[in-house]
User: Fold these one by one.
Assistant:
Number 1:
Amino acid sequence: MSAQALDFPASASAPLGREPMGVSARASETESAASARVQVSAVIPCLNEERTIAACIQKARQGFETAGVVGEVVVADNGSTDRSVEIARSLGARVVHESVKGYGAALRRGMSEAQGEIIVLADADESYDWSRLCDFVHKIQNGYDLVMGNRFTGGIAPGAMPPLHRYFGNPVLSAVARIAFRVKIGDFHCGMRAVRKEAFERMLLQTDGMEFATEMVANAACQGMRITEIPTRLYPDKRGRPPHLRSFRDGWRHLRHILTYAPDHLYLAPGGLLLLAGLALQALLCVGPVRIAGFYMGIHFLALGALLTLAGFNILNLGIFAKLLMSQRYKGLQSRTVRLLRERFALEYGMIPALLLISAGLSINVMILVRWLQRPGAPMESTVHPAFVAATMVVLGLNILFSSFLVSMIRGNEKGSSAHSAARS
């Protein structure tokens, strides 16, 4: 439905810089509405949406009436060069501007400026039915922090979503995100959703692009917020031009964000598996070569075991630091690893096993040196396996030792920050 087909005031087409007829009346109406406490804010990101913005605003107002709430429409303009801003203002919407380009940047601005306790988001291209915002509002009123739409259960109209997105992109990325963040959401990228204003402020959202959709769910899940979804129908957009979305660029940005904020799967799981495999090879070959089912396993497998052990430990170690960094950003982060480090970790718990490993490795090397000194010129091939194991033990012990100091430093900073915040409050 085009803007011209909708019955918004003809004055909306007045030239820029000139006050359209009816704007003063609408401004008075908006001010009087603002005097009542705004309960719901409909935030609409906008970049050259003059064909559809009017319909979205009018439907959002219908949604307020259906839900029985006092609402406001906030249009987050991202640098429109058409009549979008003019039309939005003529219909009584509040327009806020964001100079940083991107879907996420525009929504963050609009959500930050929203006055309602509940924020409903959807696109400005009429691909979602704004009049159904009441369904999202009621779910938030029932105690949820974040309510997602699900286009796959609500229905996708013919031509509304490209086959690549419908059958591959969205399902795959949503499946990866479900595993990474342990949240039962079928459609991570649905553009229509609702969130409590207080929950939005705790999410500390930062991304500027389309990955904002994933970041919102991921951050809510990390902090243990209550999340649910409802069926939402997707319609073909009516903007009459190509969408802002770029399939492969934005798909990669979603995947990159998922991996970055899922340390359990990016670091801890693979690091732990590599470490266990390396330790097993080291234990099997520490004395010398072995044959298993007719296969000879010698020094090369021992070198592989050393590689896997050290690489696995370092990846695991990075995962722990990633968890600690996330816990500083998200104060409500739900993590057994972080809880264990905060409640049980002490510097000595890392130093003792580290020093034992270093001592054991050096002792083995001393024994090899003594043997070499006692029998100079004699073959030393039989000591190669123990030497590999000893070197691995020393390096592993050094890593544990210095990592323990770093973890202790991070925990000390956390306690200092908490004490400072308590003193200021």
Number 2:
Amino acid sequence: MSRPPTVFVIGFPGALARGTATEIGRAGDVAIRLLAPPDAREVAQGFAAELGGDARVVEGDVSRIDFGLSGADYLDLAEEITSICCVLLPPPPGVGGGYEVARAAAREVIELAQAAPDLDHVLVLSHLDVAGNANSAFAERDLELGQGFAGVDQEERFRAERIYRRFADRLPLSVIRCGWIPGQGEGRCPLVHLLLAIADDPGREGERLLLITEGTALVEVVAGMIGLPPSRGGRTLHMVGSEPPTAAELADDVRELAGELVPVGFDLVRGARRLLRRGGQTYDWSYREFFKRQPGRARFESALTERFLGEHGLPRPELDEARLAGLVESAVEEIVGFK
């Protein structure tokens, strides 16, 4: 009797890792191994219990050699897993504490993949900002176009993806490039950011495309790919809507929706700025810096992605009006309720 597939999920306690593990768990007979840092062990154990079935926590660090596991535990993990799902959510621009592990995580994922004898999938999350300042069509297969980068976070993700590319012909590797995911943990970008811009004029930056990936659809795609036959040779998906809005258009939509929800006399902008200083940690949010770090001149070619999603019945991550309204409502509720 064949054993059920076992998926190793990297990225906890991020909301994207939680959502992916939950969606994978709904598939039924799938074992889940959840990598969690020591300071999130108890939370992870509670989450694994909620998942039910064969879900267990692997305590470790994504940036340490062998994830910080003992030799025996590492080999046991490699022996049992059939898929690796690395969904580390990039932090917003200007927020440290995440981007610097990108290359270290890439190396550890590759090492584990090479040690796993029964591997069907390696799914890794990247970001569309690897396009940098490319002034051309940026296709799924593209990476090195001589582009420059507005910040070290972009360049680190670029270098991490380049590590993965070296092994694309030897592993069942899929790179999933997303845009900014609104409402996901500390990645509040861009909704709160746009609420802050209500009192300002974004100027030229407002006419640039805002690359947003709808988180629910992304989770469904990642979980859905786990159930597909393995693919050799490498695959890259551009997970962004077919018609990305400009920053000005989205700001107008957010402004209108927020205006219907904010109590008379409440200073939404001031409340949002206070919210971004919650927990004694000040986030250096500058809407101009945010737009500067958005790939603004590249046109993102997604023909292969559209074909792949269509062939397998997977959703495209469109940010529809209902989803946007829900995100704005939750953001405003958090701001208005913040003390």
Number 3:
Amino acid sequence: MKTISTSATVCRWTARIVSALVLGLILVIAIGEHMPISRLATNLVSHPLSTEALGFAGFSLMMLGLLAGWRWEIAGGIASLVGVAALVEPTIVNGRVTWFFALMAAPGALYIASHRLRHHLAKKSKACGPEGPVES
């Protein structure tokens, strides 16, 4: 059981570190591109069903998932992966998905893995009493 606990902790902290790096890189790119939020919002209102709107919605959901994963691992992981999936279609370059998508999807998958490992550990500890495993 100690191995599962250690694995869950490694998954959780790896997800947190990678999500912080991804969010930091996104912030650096946004600052470098002089991305004004007001212009982005105006474009989304004028073209509500465009691929840009889908990409922005996916991007926003992915970023919110990365932040939420710090507190709520399963919800943050799912939101992050759904956001990345929505973001893939409008941003495919030359028919290929770039390495950046794997980097953006990794924290979401690790948040979910950490949650599942901790859930598995909790189930095992319930089955084991102070005397050891319960036999049926």
Number 4:
Amino acid sequence: MGDQRQYETLSTVAESLDAEVQGKASAFIASGPGDLRVVSCATLTVVDEAVDLFEAYWSPWTKGKVSSPQVLRFLFGAAASGMSSYLFNSATFNRHLFGESRTFKIPLSTPLLLSWISLFLISIICVAIGYSWVGLAYALMIGGLRIFDQCLLRDLRTWLFLSTVLAVICLGIFAIVAWLRVSTSRSMLKGRLLYLLLFCFMALQPLTCAMLGLSLRSHWTGHENRPSPVLVSHTCSIVSLDPNLERIFQVAYIRSLLYPVSDNLSIAWILISLMSLAVALGYLVIPKILTTFLGDLVAYLVASHANEFYSLREEIRRRCYALCRDVMERKDRTGKLQYENIIVVSHSLGTVIAFDTINRILAEDRELGGSDSRYSRFGGLLTFGSPLNKAAFLFGYESQDRVDLRTSIMTCLQPLISEPAIRESMPWINFWSKLDPVSAAISYYDPSDNWPWRVINVHDSQASVPVLAHITYWQNPDFKEMLKLMCRSRLLGSLAIRSRASELGEASRRL
């Protein structure tokens, strides 16, 4: 996610393992294409066992490839799909898993969350336009051009001023509470408080947008002698909002900023113009931040033969597959395959890429040797901050009302959801957090909730800051413990790994 540097994730994994680095990192010549011919790894010692770490680094390939309008279109489309499925398909969708069709229930929270985010994004764009309008109007008045309705501007700047004050209060308290350290037992309480503050900030935007619209409508319909309230007006028959606020704002400087109605307050006009334009730019930065966090998701999840992201996704798949295949084919000096236990650890969009990569390798090796095939060397899959559940619902190939032949064929090409023996030998552990809007408990990849080889979900109960919870899984001691156990899965066995993960999952649910 974001601006990752090469080997940064690899270093974080090594720190989470509390491992001792043995000598220097090594490299070997592989059969991969292009720059993947030289594969680098870090050799560690974890509980007296040698572990080699490899990193599939793909972050630069999506850098700058997705624009803010494309991310907004992605979110609006996801919201429309979610609400449509919930309202017109009995809040269910179907998936083909392990040879049979299963109907999944769509939780109401999913379409509501997507719709809420869409409303917020529309509102901040409208509010940013309002700030720009006010800032431009006062900038022109400094030059003596009063081409906007002064009465309307007075009301618009009042609502925008109140919105800014309340937004600063919400975000200020949010920053202070987020900075405070709390005990593990109170982390969820802190998270709920921060969520409430974030909700208040988000709710403030559509409310401000509505008040701006009502003010515009009031002035538009109240001026009978003019076709538009944008034209110059030195008198106003509309009751302004300003007198109602004079009782609240008694400080001279604040009043001068709220009510610069004479030529003697040109300095206040300059301040209001600069403030409005600065806040407008600040609001327009929000879609840019979303692009940083969601751009790679957009490029990968919505790729198809019909859009510009298809070749990018296929390149990511090809390179990650080549690296994984090179590692699996690595041999020692005697000609034997070097690695008997291969663990895949992935975060965020990396979980989707890992899912695709493992399925491709399993499907290829399945044709080579049946029960003796090399895919049995996968010792486990550890995912965290994963959007896989959301991807299955919003961007899956399945029909929303039925499972057709095309869906069944595509499922057969994904052994992780078509062959129970693979899931039995390869435990799949998923860490997620309620405070992480990207992640979710993975439940759409198992034939039933009581299936013995189901994905074991562990909630990160120590996360306390909404949104930032997406990048704090490394700090959870349960995650570190599971990472160490995964490195010894061949010695401990898949049942022991599942048993311990289930204990951690139950403990996190109680918290």
